[in-house]
Amino acid sequence: MTLYETTAAAADRLSRELPGHRVEVLLGRITATPHADGTHALILSRLITTFHEAGARQAGLEYLQAIGLRLPSGPNDFAIPDFSLVEAGFRSAHVEQNCYAPHTFRMVLEVTSPPTRSDDLGTKADCYAQAAIPVYLVVDRRHDEAVLHTDPRGGEYRSRKPFKRGTSVPLPASIGAALDLSVNRLLDGEESPHPTGGNVIFRHTFE
Hints:
Elements: H1 7-17, E1 22-26, E2 29-33, H2 38-53, E3 61-65, E4 68-70, E5 78-79, E6 83-87, E7 94-96, E8 99-100, E9 105-111, H3 117-130, E10 135-140, E11 145-153, E12 156-164, E13 168-171, E14 177-182, H4 183-188, E15 201-202
Parallel strand pairs: 4-8, 9-10
Antiparallel strand pairs: 1-2, 3-6, 4-5, 6-9, 7-8, 10-11, 11-12, 13-14, 14-15
């Protein structure tokens, strides 16, 4: 970054100079991470299938990969979560630089890779809590668990619960859904049966 270059301009330049990298600004710090591996991509594809089959769109929600989220933690801060659950009218919340206001996000999810793990578990948890994202889920592949963050208040998540293999993550009603996610499937992208064997139903709670 040159002496007179703004953080936003530097992030834009890096996006052009580093094709195939995800460039974000977290707490005023520019990060650039390369493409993740095939398992990472498979996990996200399976999530899309899960939310589609659960009827998320009929409940007034959209499920998206790599959409920009404007963060209140700094004047130029933004993140690009691996997976986001947003309200159907999210496009009316566009702010700038292909980013959208946080009030339209119901949940964000990150799948860790070696270059991103510390940000996913630390910095991003702080940023998403400050943005009052109701639910933040981290798929921590190093520790073989999924970590659910909920109840953002005072710039932090008041609840942080890890879930191990063989269990499922119960997503809270604040996302407008009744849905459990298999930890095995979150970690591996496997097409395993739903652990509870029950139906998954979304409830439309948004106007």
